[in-house]
Amino acid sequence: MAETGQHHQRYERYEGGSPEAERRVFERLARELMEVQVRNRRAGGGGIARAFHAKAPVAVENARLRFHDDLPEALRVGFAQPGADYPATVRLSNASGIRQGDGSPDLRGAAVRVRVSDGESHDLLATSFPVSHASDAREFVAFAKAMAGARTPLQKAFGLLVKLPLAVGLKTAARMRRNVQAATRRTVNSLANETYWSRGAILWGEAGPVRYLLRPAPGTPPAPAPDRRDADFLHREFARRLGQTDVAFDLCVQRYVDERRTPIEDAAVEWKDEVAPAVPIARLTIPSQELDGAEARAAARRIEDLTFNPWYTTDDFRPLGNINRARKAGYQAGGAHRLGLRFVTEEPLRNRVLGRPVGALIGVLNRVVPWHRLPLSLSLLNLVFLRKVLRRLNLIDTEVREAPPKAQPVPEPIPERLRTERSYDGTYNDLSEPRMGAVGAAFGRNLKPDYRPDLFDTPNPVTVSRQLLHRESFVPATSLNVLAAAWIQFQVHDWVNHRRHNPGDRSVEVPLPPGHGGGWQNTPNGPAENVMRFAENEGIERPGEPPILFANSASHWWDGSEVYGGDEQTARFLREPDGGAGLRLEDGHLPVSGNGIPLTGFNESWWMGLSAMHTLFAREHNAVCDALRAEYPTMSEERVYQTARLVVSALIAKIHTVEWTPAILATEAIDVALRTNWSGPPKNWLNQLGLWLFEAHSLTGIPKTLPDHHAAPYSLTEDFVTVYRMHPLIPDDYELREHQFGRRLETVGFRDIQGGAAETQIRKTGLANSLYSFGIAHPGAITLHNFPRSLQRFERDGEIVDLSVVDLVRTRRRGVPRYNDFRAGLHKGRIRSFEELTENAETLARLKDVYRDVDEIDTVVGLLAENPPTGFGFSDTAFRIFILMASRRLQSDRFLTVDYRPEVYTPLGIDWVEKGGMNSVVLRHCPELAPLLPRGASAFAPWRTVRPTSDNGGSP
């Protein structure tokens, strides 16, 4: 195989100078071909068809390919052996991407799948002209775009004479037109009498490159002149022919001679027979049969659902040349689009035309007036354009992509059940790319990484923590309650999890600064040391690259994995026995393991607030199950469970979108924007007109749109993880109160309600009293000098860690740019002085003492120091990651877009999500709390406090 690889590298030249550069070009071209499919559908009617060869007059499953007994020795490679005989599927087609009558001027095509074994097949694709109209993939796609949707002679002429020259230039367009006209002017009476050329080369093992062709076997009778008014005359002729006899073609190969006469990269040059004679090596036979019976029609329908691709082969027969290399991505994208596995969101022309100048004007305006100080309609329009910019420039794919293309078997069929239910590990959310966003997929990036090992300890992160993060006195966020703090941890556990090495196996060491006192105890009862030590993250190793790529050990999707688990074994363990649909509960609470921590999907960093969230949504799952059983009594328990998973996960996504985020970003613009994300814009003519003019895609809520990954395959990002470092929300102490009379039950510290102690405490206090106690208490403000003391000496997995130091160190070591670069990368102006960041004299003095200049400020510190817009719970810089990723988590997920529908969720399930919210969840499971929830606000806003009547403040 090594020699085979050297063969193709010797013959091929990659566009852009490297396989990776070429891959990026081909991915863009593949998306453009999907847009061609949409335009052809509008012109031809019906569903999305193949971008080319949309109509197949003939499709059979029972053909045979037999290699000749005298196959030349040099061509005996792989499955090509003397006398070898294989079953084959054959599809003969018209070349147009629009289904039209067989008499229209057109080329014809042949697609043959040769089945060698269960794990090996070979797709052969050929067209009825010896050369391509396009020399490379760029020209090929330019021609497809110029002719997309063209049905009439006038439309075709306009495409050839106007659109094509504008795309490729006059000279190239003239050459392409000559090839097309020569190929299509021939009269075709029968597909059995046509010769089909591969036009591009493939490797033939050690024999080197070949082109192949299928030509009618000797003795194939001509066809009588057909009735060209019959739109399906090619099918009828072939059916009559097959009704009487077999139809056969000889498979021939032409061997490579030299780059001038038999080029690999230029598909527009013919390999002439006098230079490279066509050598017959096998015969393809379609046996005599009835082509119009029920069995034949069923076979034809199955073949229409196939995606042929020359890369469905083995390394010995790897396709060669620019067009062939592009075909893998192009055919996979087009096939997935046609089968409803991948989608295209069209941008209306008015949005494209008006968007650029208006976007530029808004950019100029923002230099004078920040978006949040503009009138409501203008600020909403500003957010629309900001998100457009972020989607275009701030989605970076970090996964290793295949470059150059590799041969592969035909993909396995999609498991049918995963079309309508979420997998446990996040696979098959995107049915065209099953591993996208799954457990183990790499975190992406919003900004180009800046990996600086020389600055890992500069300035010392312990000094940064003590001077700028440490909570000296509690600063409350008075517009929120502690349930908001518990909620975001509940969500982050669903979204992101960096796997850690076992303590002691591989650690990060942070030296203590001089004068730190008595050292640091890294393990319970361990010795005092002059370093802080904690487990290193497990990275994805790549030779020659810095260790800044990490896999997510949760799925990237919004799938409730913190409740249900991220693998099937865990999920089934958490369910009721004997396959019941409900989750296991004990007296309404989560069952507890031997260490006192509950059994649930994700239970790290456990505390009482987290327990309240998990308990609520485990109960909510069971309530959905009960409702589904009552409404659909014949539904199986497995179906009840899977449907309830979908409903609860979508309800969680909705609550976060339209309740939690507007609560923490308490401005009218954000409330409107996020409700628009879910439900569409308010019935306000000005807002609707603005969206119609500039982003029509937002005229409905995201659940009514198609999945769209925008500039990169879906993943959560390291930058997203950074802005969700919201530990200041956690108070260090809590007053637990009884909700009926307001009596104080007890005052506890965070450590008293953390880990195994949490479950004892919530059972003792009761869920209703716990929710009430958290509902009337404020979380900490997300600002400097407010990091919880209890988390600065936090015990987990046998380690004692300072999470404020961990936050700083992780962000540095993962290559997240420092604050000023982070800010600039999100299209905000750089700060030039410390005074631009804060007006607080004490903070200013400490910043100057800790950092040498503003470019050294840690990302976490800068985000906490920045003065947020009025009503915001965090900085405008962090908000830019939110505005990009908040809609992306919905927009990419088919279960929150195209498959958010009654057929998948059931009508009851959709109704449950649409009418539900955090208040309804609380009231369903603790109805006694109804008088205490805030009026006209989310359950994350402060609740009504019950005033105790006793003189001692309600103390027992």
Keywords, separated by commas or semicolons:
956 residues, alpha+beta, Catalase HpII,  Chain A, domain 1, 9-stranded antiparallel sheet, two-stranded antiparallel sheet, 29 helices, elongated, disordered N terminus, disordered C terminus
Categorize the overall geometry: elongated
User: How many alpha or pi helices?
Assistant: 29
CATH architectural category of the domain at 2-338: Beta Barrel
Helix content: 25-40%
Instruction: Please tell me how large the radius of gyration is.
Output: 32 Å
CATH superfamily of the domain at 2-338: Catalase core domain
Largest sheet at a glance? 9 strands, antiparallel
**Overall strand count:** 17
Regarding CATH, which class of the domain at 2-338? Mainly Beta
Sheet/helix structural class: alpha+beta
